[in-house]
Automatic annotation (TrEMBL):
Function text: Catalyzes the transfer of a methyl group onto N-acetylserotonin, producing melatonin (N-acetyl-5-methoxytryptamine).
Record-level Gene Ontology MF annotations: acetylserotonin O-methyltransferase activity; protein dimerization activity
Taxonomic lineage of the native organism: Eukaryota, Metazoa, Spiralia, Lophotrochozoa, Annelida
Protein origin, superkingdom: Eukaryota
Organism: Owenia fusiformis
Enzyme Commission code: 2.1.1.4
Transmembrane regions listed in the UniProt entry: none
Protein name: Acetylserotonin O-methyltransferase
Keyword S-adenosyl-L-methionine attributed: yes
Protein keywords: Methyltransferase, S-adenosyl-L-methionine, Transferase
S-adenosyl-L-methionine recorded as keyword: yes
Subunit structure: Homodimer.
Residue ranges occupied by any O-methyltransferase C-terminal domain in the UniProt entry: 127-310
Domain O-methyltransferase dimerisation: 10-89
């Protein structure tokens, strides 16, 4: 396996493209163009930026195909291509705009070298660097919401969960997985357990697709009792913790579960030789930078679950899900 020189240069300068997209998004360029094309001067006035620098940024966006430009009545005007309207404007239901919470992510990734030397996060005592302020916490929740909502309808159908009547999604954040669960299994009740501050912030998301079958419980899953359930879920919540904390969490789940109960783990598996897939490798870097945990191969997940007494372990690589694969296991 070898790369061409240009491919290496593309990796080296990848951050430049990210910053062009991020800056245009943060300045509101794509939003300003939702009502139709505008000249660079008009856009600069709307986003309150320097006209010459704005024109140069807009041209860089054209180079990346994030914007189109045409000549109309002797004036150059810029407009959003369909893909930008669909994926980068705030009001679009398919928007991935909130995945770009780069105010937190970008400086954090600048610490990667130091993290590798230290073997741990360099900056924050918080659960996540994202949770240091309510604003960055909400940004993080929005990005999780988008990421989980995209894959959730596929994830709830990987295994037949119809024999479970009450589920509890530990670290279920805004309830995106819970919503997909009650849609797929109309008789199921789901409790989302998350930190009280997250449950409080979730109220914006709860109004979207609200369901009587979903309830929210604020608490610390290391300290407080879990809501009763015959199906517990850890989605992108297994990978967050140090081995010691993960052991404590799995022990607690095992002790709380009744015989016949199940645990559904949703995480993106690393290949057994840890050379892919790229999404898992990047998530693993994220874990190193912002949390205490790591990504794992399927055999590492199985080993951990077996150590805590879980049996009947079944797994599935979910081909059409971007950020999750699935494992289900039981308590005898
Ligand atoms: C990486 S997010 C995953 C969110 C969601 N399950 C998903 O797949 O999108 C981890 C979640 O665990 C929650 N969490 C962290 N520490 C917690 C604790 N001690 N008690 C309860 N929830 C916690 C976070 O607030 C966050 O919502």
């Amino acid at each position: 396996m070898a790369l061409e020189k240009q491919e290496i240069v593309d990796i080296l300068y990848g951050f430049q493209k990210t910053q062009i997209l991020f800056s245009a998004g943060e300045l509101g360029v794509f939003e300003e163009l939702t009502n139709g094309p505008l000249s660079s001067k008009a856009i600069a006035a709307k986003i309150k930026a320097n006209p010459d620098a704005t024109e140069r940024l807009l041209n860089a966006c054209v180079g990346l195909k994030l914007l189109n430009k045409t000549l109309k009545d002797g004036e150059t005007i810029y407009n959003n291509p369909d893909s930008t309207t669909k994926y980068l404007t705030k009001s679009s239901p398919d928007s991935v705009r909130w995945m770009t919470n780069l105010n937190v992510v970008y400086p954090m990734w600048g610490q990667l070298k130091d993290c590798v030397v230290k073997g741990d996060r360099v900056s924050s005592e918080e659960f996540f660097n994202y949770y240091v302020t309510p604003t960055t916490q909400l940004e993080f929740m929005r990005s999780m919401h988008i990421i989980c909502s995209m894959d959730a309808p596929k994830l709830v159908n990987v295994f037949d969960l119809s024999s479970y009547s009450v589920a509890c999604d530990l670290g279920g954040s805004t309830g995106s997985l819970a919503k997909a669960l009650v849609k797929a299994y109309p008789t199921m009740k789901v409790t989302v357990m998350d930190r009280s501050d997250v449950v409080q912030q979730s109220r914006d998301f709860m109004s979207e697709g609200r369901s009587e079958a979903i309830s929210y419980s604020g608490g610390d899953f290391f300290v407080d009792a879990f809501p009763d359930a015959d199906l517990y879920i850890l989605a992108h919540t297994f990978h967050n913790w140090s081995p010691e904390k993960l052991d404590a969490l799995l022990d607690k789940i095992m002790a709380t579960m009744k015989s016949g109960g199940a645990l559904l783990v949703l995480e993106k598996f690393l290949d057994e030789d840890k050379s892919g897939p790229m999404e898992s490798l990047l998530l693993d870097m994220d874990m190193l930078l912002c949390a205490e945990g790591r990504e794992r191969s399927l055999s590492e997940y199985k080993e951990k679950l077996e150590k805590h007494g879980f049996t009947d372990i079944k797994s599935k690589v979910v081909e059409n899900a971007l950020w999750y694969d699935a494992i289900i296991c039981k308590k005898k």
